[in-house]
Amino acid sequence: MQYVYAAMLLHSAGKEVDEAGLTGVLKTAGVEFDEARVKALVASIKNINIEEAIEKAAVAAPAAAPAGAAAGAEAADEEPEEDAGKKEEEAAAGLGALFG
Which of 2, 10, 46, 81 has its CA 20 to 30 A from that of 30? Predict the structure, then answer.
């Protein structure tokens, strides 16, 4: 993921996303990296319009949210009210799973 973040950082700064730039960002961040992975990333995004890819990703994410919200609303109607403390614990556990 650090490789992609470095590429996004270079792109947002208006710099060319190349091996030297990626290597520089990763070194500055103190990330251990593999030169082969840097080369592979540069080769794989060489012909991609990053701005267009970001716009498509930004549009696709909200489209999925309403379906999940509707399912959550249906589940809330079917379940009896639970203790507020228990819900907080469940929410905290769910967030903890995101960050490993």
Answer: 46
Q: 24-77: per-residue pLDDT in tens?
A: 999 999 999 999 999 999 999 988 888 888 888 877 665 555 555 555 555 555
Tokens 């469940």 belong to residue: 90
Q: Say what the pTM is.
A: 0.55
Closest CA to 48 of 20, 11, 83, 85: 11
Amino acid (one-letter) located at 2: Q
The domain 2-48 is placed in CATH, from the list 3.30.750.24, 1.10.10.1410, 1.10.760.10, 2.40.50.140, at: 1.10.10.1410
